[in-house]
C-alpha cells in the first residue's frame, strides 16, 4: 500500500497555496513517495531553467524553456507558475525583451512552499 498522499496529511493546503496538493495527488495516484520525488524534481528543474533562461539569447530556446516549465508546473499543481509561464510565452512572441521577474517570483514562492512541505 502506498504511503498517504501529502494532500491528506498536510495542513498547508488551500486555494492560496502555491501547489495544489490535490492535483499533485491526482497526478501521482496518491503515492507520497512519488509526490516527494516529483516535487524534488520540479524544484531542481525550475531552478536550472531560470538560470538557463537568464543566459539564453536565442528566442526560440527561451520559449522552449518557458513552455517546458509551464508543463512541469501544471503536472505538480503549481498553477500560478504555469499561468505566469503562459503569460510570459505570449509576451515573448511579441517582444524579445519580455521580463522574467514575475516568473522568478512565482518559482521562488513555489520552491519555498515545496521546501517547507518536505522539510517541515
Question: Can you give me a brief rundown of this structure?
Answer:
This protein is an all-alpha fold. It has 6 helices and no strands.
What does this protein structure show overall?
The structure is a single chain. Helix 3 packs antiparallel against helix 4 (59-76) and helix 3 runs antiparallel to helix 6 (101-119). The chain is built from six helices and no strands. The chain has 120 residues and is mainly α. The protein is elongated, with a radius of gyration of 15 Å. The two termini are 24 Å apart. Helix content is 73%, strand content 0%.
Contiguous runs where pLDDT drops below 50 for at least 5 residues = none
If you average the pLDDT, what whole number results? Answer: 90
Task: Give the strand content.
Answer: under 5%
Helix content: over 70%
Measured between the Cα atoms of the first and last residue, the distance is 24 Å
Question: For the CA atoms, what is the radius of gyration?
Answer: 15 Å
Q: Kindly report the oligomeric state of this protein.
A: single chain
| Class based on secondary structure composition and strand pairing | mainly alpha
Number of helices: 6
Q: What is the general shape? A: elongated
Could you describe the largest sheet, including whether it forms a barrel? none
Number-wise, the strands total 0
User: Order of SSEs, N→C?
Assistant: HHHHHH
Write the layout of secondary structure elements.
Elements: H1 6-9, H2 21-27, H3 32-55, H4 59-76, H5 79-94, H6 101-119
Task: Provide key terms for this protein.
single chain, 120 residues, mainly alpha, 0% strand
